[in-house]
Structure formats: C-alpha cells, structure tokens
Amino acid sequence: MSRHLLALAAGIALLSNIASPAAQAQTARQPAFKTAEALRDKALKDDTAWTVVESLTTDVGPRLVGSPGMARAKDWAVKQFEALGFSNIKVEEFAKSSWTRGAESASIVAPYELPLSIIGLGRTVPTPKGGVEGEIVVFDAYADLIAAPEGSLKGKIAVVVQPMTRTQDGSGYGAAGIARRSGASEAARRGAIAYLTRSISTSDLRSPHTGVLSYTEGLPKIPAAALGVPDAELLQRLARKGPVRIRMKLESSVDEKAVAWNISGDITGSSKPEEVIVIGGHLDSWDVGTGAIDDASGIAITTAAAKLIGDLPTHPARTIRVVMWGSEESGGASEAYAEANKDKMGQFVIAGESDLGADRIYAIQLPKGAIAAPQLADLPALMAPLKIIVSREPAPFAGSDTEGLQEAGVPVMSLRQSALRYFDLHHSPDDTLDKIDPAQLNQNVAAWVALLYLIADSDIDFRALPAGAAK
Length: 471
Known about the structure:
By secondary structure, the chain is an alpha/beta fold. The chain folds into two domains: 28-98 and 257-469, 3-Layer(aba) Sandwich (Aminopeptidase); 103-251, Glucose Oxidase, domain 1 (3-Layer(bba) Sandwich), CATH 3.50.30.30. Helices cover 35% and strands 21% of the residues. The protein has helices at 3-16, 21-28, 30-43, 48-60, 68-83, 142-147, 171-189, 229-241, 292-310, 333-340, 379-383, 403-407, 422-425, 438-456, and strands at residues 87-95, 98-100, 104-110, 114-115, 118-120, 132-139, 157-160, 194-198, 224-227, 245-250, 253-255, 259-267, 272-282, 318-325, 348-353, 361-365, 389-390, 414-417. Helix 4 crosses helix 9 (292-310) and helix 9 packs across helix 14 (438-456). It starts with a helix and ends in a 15-residue tail after the last helix. 49% of the residues are buried.
C-alpha cells in the first residue's frame, strides 16, 4: 500500500471514531429517545384523553364564565387532577364579569315573514324590551362597512355577509373574525341601531356560531348577533331585489361581580422540579354546545400526555404543569395567570396550549433556534410515524391563554392541528362529543407526550439558543 493510501486509510479510521456532535448527542440521549418513543406508541392506544373529554362534556356540560356549569367545571378539574396523580394542585381565583344569554329571536318582516336563525354575540347588550326593527343594509365585505360614511346607517340594521375561507392552519378565521369582533361598533359609528354578521364559520348549515365582540369606547353599544350561513346568504339575495326589514330581540345580562378560576396540577420533576413546562387548554366554553372541540379536547390532550409521563417509574428532570385556564372565550385567564405567576417567569422553560380541536397535528413549531439544538436532534424521527413535520419556522404564538407568558418572555411552542373542519363546529350547538375522532385525538396525545418528555428530560435553555441557529 502506498504512503498516500496508508495516510488516507488512517484518516478514514480516525474520522470513523470521531462522531459528529449530533451523533454524540443522539448516543447520549438514547435513553430519553427510547422512553419518548415508548410513550408515543403507548399514547396511540391509551384511552385517558377520551375518558377526560367524555367526562367534561357529559358530566359538566356547557361552561360559560359565571354560570353554574363553570363552577361545576372548577370542582371537576380538581377531582381529575387528584384522580390522575397530579401534585401541587392550585385553584387561582380572579375577578371576571360574566355575561348571560337570554331569549333571542329575529325574523324578516318584509317583503315577507320568516324566522331567522341567529345567536347573540358574546357580551352583546340587549335590545330595548320590545326589540328593534329596521331596514337592513347589507355589506358583502367588512371593508365595505368601513368605507360607508358616518351617518349613512342612521336607523338601519347593518348586515355583513363576508364568508370565511377554509384553511388548514385556521388563518381564514383571523381574516374573517374582525367582522364579529369589531363590526357592531363600526356599524354604530355610522348610525346603525343593531348589527348582524354572517357566522364566522366554514359550515353551510343554519346553526349560527357565537363568539365574543368588543365594543369601542366612546361609541354607542348596539345589540349584535350572528346569522346562520344560509340565512345570511338569503338576506344578501333579498337585499339585491329591494328593501328588507328585520325585527330582532335579545335579552342578555351582565354580572360585574363574578369570578373565574385557573386550575393547575403538576407532574413534578425528579431532579430539576423548579424548572417548569407550562401546557394546557381552556376550561370555559360557550353555552350553546358542550364545548367538546373548544376546548375540552385541548384539556384532555394535554392532561393525558402529562399523566402518561406521570405514570413512569422515574419522572423526567423538569416539572410539567397542566393549566386549565378559566376564561379564554371572553378573555382574562391569560392576564390573571401571568399576574399570579409574575415572580416565577424565569422558572418557566416553555409554554404551549392545545386549542384547535382534536383533529390531527401536522406540524410542530418551536422557539427560534430550537430546531438546531442537539437536545432535540431526534425529534423529527419521533414525529415521522405520526406524519408530523418539525417546522423550520419558529412558533409565532402558542395560544390565547399563554399570551401573557409569551409577553413576559417565556418561550412558546405550537403543535399545529388541522383546522379544515374546526370552524364548521366551534362556537355553535354542533360542538359536541360525537365530532371527536378518538384516533386523531390520540395522535395529538402521542405528539405532545413525546415532545414533552424530550424537553422535560433535557437541559435545553430556549432563552439561550444562539441567534444563528434558527434554521
């Protein structure tokens, strides 16, 4: 063998004995990988998530803030944490005004009489005792309402019929949702006496979808409701042919002295219990369904994932905390949790929320730089059997209830679920247990439990990742 070949052979032998950093990390993390893999596979056959979501939707029912159902949910949450082996169970009360739906009705009175399928928007003011009646002005798009001059709707009922686009990532909701959130105040700014919006929904059924609105300070508060999609389209067609009059009556009320609760339980870490991963879903729901996909499923997914880790003979190093946030639909839980834990923000390793139903997860987004971290080198392999990609894009947002933590500097993660049918159902009477597919529910648990274990049994510091490691 020539001198050059001998040198080359020696070099190859030397290189073969020097593992890459990623390979070294994989070897060092092999026990964690194997445990995460076993947890993933166990989750696909485990019935904990289904048991939790079935109990919350059946034994508790609707859970509007300030209602007897929400008080039942608080007690249910504590009992669930106790039964599933969680520790450090906390009930953190915070002040929150509550809104109660009363009798609701609307109908076309001209050019003919026909009852309309409506639902009052959350936080709407009631109509005067006898209701309101007026000619409608239909806007095909929310932008058309904004373009209308002030005073142009005096004495009229404004109707926005802009449809929502169905998307896998749910982005169509953000684009269409402004008509629900802000439309009433913009209509009032132009003189309207009431406001109707096409349901922010991808469904084609008459079931209307509710959701909270926000009144603009300094403008009149007018009654507001959502229309079932076919009814909104009927009004759109009728208005093209001539004047249409509607009568509408809402009887809602507000209690300014109500309270809500954030309830949490821990799977305590074995060696670094002071380092906490915060996950969960929101316990409250709208009153017209049983809140199965929004968000009993998120409660079930995160609780079941943490419980599977809690059942291990030895817990991972870090603590996993499940929070059942108590007021997401009308806001307040995020701010309350951040305030109650403002002195502990540095202990929170990462936060994430499950709040987009129970359909399959298709992607995971992590904090900037995490995808290149050696501690998570095996994550793509763990997710591949679940048909989940580890996105190169960092998580921009984790959920409404983790927003306060994110603003305080806590890193966040997002497990992206398919929203292709979510907005057919949410905020409507159709949000019920039968819409949940147990196999897809368990795929969510499998993804959560594998990711959680890798993070919980590692030393990764998401705040200290190098700036150049984003890709």
